[in-house]
Amino acid sequence: MNPELEELQKKKADLENELQSLSDRELSLDDKVKALEEKLAIQELNEQIKAKRDAVNQFETRVKELEEKLKEPRWEPETPVQQQEQPAQPELEVTEEAPPQEEIVLMEPGMEPDSPNTEHPEPKKKRKFF
Description:
58% of the residues lie in helices and 0% in strands. By secondary structure, the chain is an all-alpha fold. It is elongated, with a radius of gyration of 48 Å.
């Protein structure tokens, strides 16, 4: 055999072995990546569960506190019946006098304005046009 051909075949075999080795390593790393992603997802879910449990526990504690408050005797008026028997009296509303409102006068073309401080303007003369 030709020494050059043997060298090329040997080199080809080495490259094929390296390719197979790299393919095996790739599959191994891919499996490891998937496993690590699953572990990370599990860790995140555990953190979410812990946070949710804490929230639920706080609500349960608050519910128990409120239920205890409901069980405690409350002070009640001595004569609740008298309060119910009395007719409700309408409350009188105290209102302040409103300040006087300004009067707005719309003017037509050709009209002259009156003095602005006049409280009671005099009636204007009606003009007849022929």
